[in-house]
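User: My collaborator sent over this chain with a note saying "see what the structure looks like." That's all I know about it. Can you take a look?
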Amino acid sequence: MSKSESDTRRSKEALASNPARATLRAFRIFFIGISFGFGSSDFGFPLHAAEPAPSAEVRDVILMLDNGPLHVRLHVSVGKKAPTEARRATIERLMKALDTNGDGKLAPEEAQRSPLFREKQRAGATEFVKSLGADMTVSPKDIEKKIEQLGGETVVYRQNTDTSATDDQVFKNLDVNGDGVISEIEMSDAVDGLLAKDSDDDECVTLDEFAPPPDPMAAQTLVRPDQPKPATTSVAEIIRDTHQTLLPAQLIRKYDANRNGKLSPEELNWPKDKIAPCDTDNDGQLSLKELAGLKKAPIDIELAVDVIRATGEPMLRVIGSASNRADSDRVPDLAMVTLPNAVVTFSTREVDPFEASMAIALRTFNELDADNNGYLDKDETMVRERFGRGLFDQIDADGDGKIFGEEMKEFIRARGAPVATTCQVTAFDDGAGFFSALDTNGSRCAKCATRTRR
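Assistant: Without extra context I'll predict from the sequence alone. Here is the result:
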């Protein structure tokens, strides 16, 4: 028997003998740090030795996987500081830059130097407000509120399930008779279906060949130019922070199979001893109140994440895990954990959106600059609604009624500073569950050259 025939036989045997493999799902969890150029329990076995930053913020999150939740502990840092400390440092820098007389507060003329506090000044309005005895100064607390408003939460959870559509394509290929169920016979014969998908005759089928990307020209004919693009990410349902008050109810709604208002080890797909730290009444189940303390449960994987890379150091490090590592700790800033019902990959992504934002802004600038005189006046910006809601005056630093490129650049940098203290955690559903059943060696390519074409 040749090696290729042996590979085919093993693939078929694996599919036929273990139908559960075809429900394995793959998730990628990205820790995204946004930079605008401001500088820089009891585990199954120990992994990459790492110590989180002493001031890191600890977040316990639950991955709401279909066959049971996964407990992940994160030690999140922004430049070796907790996100809240990094944001506080941003507030202090801004205060120091604007407070020219050093009195610990901002007079109206000092606040006007920043696009964050710049407003249209009507003639005589300032003197009138002063005559009423109103306090027009901006306090550090006011700055903090503005930064919180623009920056949002210091740790943000998002998800993107667009790529999970691949599963529909692979399932359709496996479900030969179209009855909505993949039988053991269909899984055994799955290799035959690969032959038709091998478009480049390289003797393997990739995910792109199963579900090729859409034709961009077709998309242009179907989507109207004025139609808004759908959001690529949404509020996370897969990732839940244990700080969230609605988490216990969400766990009950997802996993309570017998609808008794409690979760058993079987419903959670956890061993009995894993719920013990939370089971305060020792009834062997977790009530709504007990689920509020879920962070006391043993941790499945613990990670240290710093979204600002230090020279020579990784952004992501594994402290410990109770699950198998599929990547053998070979690649920096990446950890792949294999679970009975999912493969979860943790990795980092550095984002510097300043240049991209500037490119978009300058393109908009050129589109609006109808007379090509190098600046925008209010007549030219009237076509954009946001400019009519005070944005023009925020960007117009010197109040001359004109917006120049440098003023726009200053505005983008100022608005980006609060966001630079944020860690965004985004879950991507790879949509490779059924493909993984065929990809027995994890190469992201399903072999199909083991059959002779007839």
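A starting point for your reply to your collaborator: The radius of gyration is 28 Å.
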